[in-house]
Amino acid sequence: MTPIAIMVFALSSCFTGARPTLEPVDTIVMVDDPAASAVLDILGSTPTSTSFTVSYEIVTNFGGLTTLAVVAVDEILGTSVEIAETRYLFTAEGTTSTCSTTTFECVNGIDETRVSDRQLTSTFFKQSAIERIRQDTRVAVAPANGREDSTIADRTSVCADFSVVDSQGAARTKTYCALADYAVISTMETADLSVRAVAVEDSIDTARFQPPA
Fold first, then answer.
1. Which residues of 93-132 are buried (b: 16+ CB within 10 A; e: fewer)?
2. Domain residue spans in the chain?
3. How far apart are CA 60 and CA 55, in angstroms?
4. What are phi and psi of 18, to 5 degrees?
5. pLDDT for res 30
6. How far is residue 120 from each of residues 92, 95, 175, measured CA to CA in Å?
7. pLDDT of residue 123
8. CATH number of the structural domain 4-209
9. How many CB atoms lie under 10 A from the CB of residue 188?
């Protein structure tokens, strides 16, 4: 198998050109697993849609905490990530902020501690998923099983199922699926998280890109 170079993309950079695109980080990861590479290729690609919103239902398995999250992307406005009562804003100009949708207070920068109790980060739908896939590629007991799934939010996803052994020696399957046209995850099933896209829209609410008021 020929290693496939995956360029990792950072959320905090600005969108350029005719379609939303994220600035590449100076890191190239060689992945010798076709199924994993197929998912990573999508996550590292430019979305086909210039403006879209993906809603997620997330369960933190340790404690059974359920969280609703909404990711909105627009080529002009940037990226908005809302996880429970926290809204992360990544503007097209390159600035970032963390806001509360209940107190309406905002601070400069990305404060990941706001959602750490949920085993999440502000990049759960892309960069965080890329890092998890890289790790599972290294520890999987066999090459990942690749497949397509059209049942997730009625959109086409490309998936990779990893067979791993947990710390107790039990066999487990971890699953990552990416929405082919949107370059974000649609499903992530791991020991600590169950993430599933429940709705995809080719539109955005511009209010999501502003501090809550």
1. eeebbbbeeeeeeeeeebbeebbeebbbbbbbbbbbbbeb
2. 4-209
3. 16
4. -80, -15
5. 58
6. 23, 21, 17
7. 97
8. 2.50.20
9. 23
Task: Tell me which residues of the chain have a pLDDT lower than 70.
Answer: 1-31
Of the candidates 39, 69, 40, 38, the residue with the CA atom closest to the CA atom of residue 56: 69
Name the packing angle between helices 34-43 and 127-139 (round to 10°): 170
Q: What is the pLDDT of residue 207?
A: 96
In 3D space, the residue among 80, 94, 180 whose CA is nearest the CA of residue 69 turns out to be 80
